[in-house]
């Protein structure tokens, strides 16, 4: 060992600078315990001020999971439309409304109840001129549909029924 190398190492230790060992970063300095991070021996767990950093990702995962289950607008009464396109017509009737949307080449319709509640019979249909009607019928709590048909340069006819009350359009969007 050279005399100059030993003297340099001694002066670093005297000034309080952290030295490194073959296993990794130092755990102590001349002024006291290691800075804020320490590595556990062989565990791979990083500690910060005595706390495990593994708890932070777990808390983040739980928070993200609650957003997925509850949704960001869990308290909102009206959900965003599931139909693509711009709202073209809304026809209200006693128990709900018929909402019609249109893109350049497609038409979409859904029937929405005024108040969500127990499952009740609902149906919605959409028919392009010269084509067959597409129907969504069953027992739903909030809405029936969406029903989408190809309607490029075609008129469409829509009908909806909720709790025995119904409405229909003539040939529209021609």
TrEMBL record:
This is Secreted protein. The lineage of its organism: Bacteria, Bacillati, Actinomycetota, Actinomycetes, Kitasatosporales. The chain crosses the membrane at residues 53-74. Residues 1-45 are annotated as: Disordered. Keywords: Membrane, Transmembrane, Transmembrane helix. The keyword Membrane applies. Residues 14-39 have a biased composition (Low complexity). It comes from Streptomyces laurentii.
């Amino acid at each position: 060992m050279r005399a100059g190398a030993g003297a340099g190492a001694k002066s670093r230790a005297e000034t309080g600078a952290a030295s490194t060992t073959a296993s990794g970063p130092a755990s102590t300095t001349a002024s006291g315990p290691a800075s804020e991070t320490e590595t556990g021996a062989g565990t791979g767990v990083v500690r910060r001020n005595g706390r495990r950093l593994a708890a932070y990702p777990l808390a983040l995962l739980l928070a993200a999971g609650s957003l997925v289950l509850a949704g960001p607008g869990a308290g909102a009464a009206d959900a965003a439309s599931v139909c693509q396109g711009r709202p073209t017509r809304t026809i209200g009737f006693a128990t709900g409304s018929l909402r019609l949307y249109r893109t350049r080449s497609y038409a979409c319709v859904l029937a929405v109840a005024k108040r969500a509640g127990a499952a009740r019979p609902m149906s919605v249909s959409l028919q392009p001129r010269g084509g067959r009607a597409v129907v969504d019928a069953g027992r739903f709590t909030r809405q029936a549909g969406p029903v989408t048909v190809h309607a490029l340069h075609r008129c469409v006819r829509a009908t909806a029924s909720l709790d025995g009350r119904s409405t229909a359009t003539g040939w529209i969007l021609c």
